[in-house]
Specification:
Elements (H helix, E strand, L loop, with lengths): L8 E5 L2 E11 L8 E9 L8 E6 L4 E2 L10 E4 L4 E3 L3 H13 L9 E4 L1 H16 L1
Parallel strand pairs: 4-8
Antiparallel strand pairs: 1-2, 2-3, 3-4, 5-6, 6-7
Helix pairs in contact: 1-2
């Protein structure tokens, strides 16, 4: 039986468990024309830290689903790095990039512009694929 797309998935990173979800939405401020992908990681057990929201909004030179004929979860630069946010390895790479920039799972709820993490996360994925 296939997994329900809205059911949180589990990720273990550095001995800590997270539940994560991916949501697609549209910015109402511009009449719903701008697409947005929001990856949210919830440290476990619940209540031990605030969620981390990594947001990718479509714009010039970059894409999220809805901006181009791509698969669900694909985000990237038109001429550069990209990730599929349905892949656990991509989620882990973004989590690691956020931690490198100071995010802590025990902290407060945090929202980060995903574009600021994309190149580091994609490079980590490429390096992991080579080893």
């Amino acid at each position: 039986m296939p997994r329900h797309p809205r059911k949180p998935r589990r990720l273990i990173a550095d001995g800590r468990a997270y539940l994560w979800t991916l949501r697609h939405s549209h910015d109402v401020a511009d009449g719903g024309r701008s697409c947005r992908e929001t990856l949210t990681l919830y440290p476990q057990p619940a209540g031990t830290g605030g969620p981390l929201r990594i947001v990718f909004t479509g714009g010039p030179g970059r894409y999220v689903p809805g901006d181009a004929p791509l698969g669900s979860g694909d985000v990237g630069y038109v001429h550069g790095a990209d990730l599929n946010l349905h892949e656990p390895g991509a989620v882990r790479a973004l989590l690691d990039a956020a931690a490198t920039r100071g995010w802590e799972p025990e902290g407060r709820p945090t929202e980060i512009d995903g574009w600021s993490l994309l190149e580091a996360a994609a490079a980590a994925r490429t390096g992991a694929a080579r080893t």
